Amino acid sequence: MPPSLTSAIATPRPRRLVVAGTEGCATCAICEVRANGICSALNDPELERLAQVAVKVVIPPGQIFIEEGARADEFFNVTSGTVKLFKSLPDGRRQITGFVSVGHFLGLAVSKTYAFGAEAIDQVRLCRFSRTRLDPVINEIPRLERRLLSEAANELVAAQEQMLLLGRKTARERVASFLQELLEKEYGDSPAPGAWISFPMTRADIADYLGLTVETVSRTLSGLRREGLITVRNGHEISIITPSRLHAIARGEG
Amino acid sequence: MPPSLTSAIATPRPRRLVVAGTEGCATCAICEVRANGICSALNDPELERLAQVAVKVVIPPGQIFIEEGARADEFFNVTSGTVKLFKSLPDGRRQITGFVSVGHFLGLAVSKTYAFGAEAIDQVRLCRFSRTRLDPVINEIPRLERRLLSEAANELVAAQEQMLLLGRKTARERVASFLQELLEKEYGDSPAPGAWISFPMTRADIADYLGLTVETVSRTLSGLRREGLITVRNGHEISIITPSRLHAIARGEG
DNA sequence: TTCATGCAATGATTCATATCAAGCGATATC
DNA sequence: GATATCGCTTGATATGAATCATTGCATGAA
């Protein structure tokens, strides 16, 4: 009955939050991701202000650093690596609501607790902000709030697209949409046919993201491969031979 | 292959946007929904400022007033009635991403176009704002922006919950979740067992919201009725006999 | 080397939900 | 007053994806 139970159990539940490494960060101004994320909205003095409340942390692969339902008293800004966001049912079924990487921030919460969990897929670097210390900074810098709003609006659009996928698309269309999304993340809207795209998530992650089982994801990828639409290398690198065909499938016109 | 094609075709595609009625609104201060929506964040002079850019409109049932992909140059604030938001596939499959009623605002868009459509279910009253005229007002009133951000965060949480539903819940769990949601909208978290809740959406709407077919929604409701968990009256009123049982089912513990 | 473990692919079978079909009341149309 | 049409329900059947089962291939440990 529960579709993703197996994948949820097969995956070893990573241990509880232990911050693996922290480094002081007095110099957001020279941060390697300054052009991304919330920081891109700020000038030097504002960054200086932000730096005072930021701590850099490193999260090893597989570690959950936001626990569903935990007190939401921290904000994060991803500076490298890939994070999966998820929601779970009591029996272990899991839905991944998004994969986020450099530039994205995490922790926007309505209530006092996080409505979702977050787990590092590969090694992840984050900027961590205490909420109580970040709030006054946000109040001081309207552009920062503007930036958060636009980020939230973006995520909302992505979420609506994903609802369409989960509610109405076939397995084939879902997998095609996922690959399409990878392609867009890498190259924007310029297709670049034949280029290799590598992705860190496992088949189980993809399944939990697309509302399918591991087997269906695997079979569907094999199918697309057999049809000559894609090539797969080492399991975690794909090359999209015919982006336009894939795009058509993703929209249900395949 | 396309699950909701039938329901999409069965539903007569409502005609294009024609604003049915407009009334000037110089008096947001005495607006009946002042306590709700974006207005609740404002004091009298601020409301006065807002009123200058607002127009009240009335939308008849079935009319689409936001067209997917259309230029996004208006904001709306729902003052009465119920609206369904949706996304569609080229072949007509449709996913309803949410039902919104009094207090909600619509039109937060990332790009220059709306990523979703909006259709009135019953008669809907809206406050309409031209985006170009609203933007400066938002800049002037930080609290307004704060309010928009919190609203967006709320919607994001709801969207994640819905992704979990669409990706991982069974038909029974989906319908139970929907009823649960109706109950919460009406009574917050105090169950009020036995009270009648009326809802305006059709079975087809519910199906398109839950990623099911009309038939499955109907059968599932009948099942819950037969089991004595709910009572249905006139098709659009339900009474939840055992809220806790329903809640358990919705979370997959039924 | 051998063994265990995790991840992916694939085949056989089952099952939940879609599809197809029919009927029923309410409301609207001619 | 006959006849559509719409929204909903229910039954019979089909099917796409889940489930169950096996295998292969890495990688890491003993």
From TrEMBL, chains A, B:
GO molecular function, one term: DNA binding
Domain Cyclic nucleotide-binding intervals: 38-107
Keyword list, A-Z: DNA-binding, Transcription, Transcription regulation
Every HTH crp-type domain range: 169-244
SUPFAM superfamilies referenced in this protein's UniProt entry, alphabetically: cAMP-binding domain-like, Winged helix' DNA-binding domain
Entry-linked InterPro entries: cNMP-bd_dom, cNMP-bd_dom_sf, Env_Response_Regulators, HTH_CRP, RmlC-like_jellyroll, Tscrpt_reg_HTH_Crp-type_CS, WH-like_DNA-bd_sf, WH_DNA-bd_sf
Organism: Acetobacter estunensis
This protein's GO CC annotations: cytosol
PROSITE patterns: CNMP_BINDING_3, HTH_CRP_1, HTH_CRP_2
Domain of life where this protein originates: Bacteria
Database matches in Pfam families: cNMP_binding, HTH_Crp_2
Protein's name according to its UniProt entry: Helix-turn-helix domain-containing protein
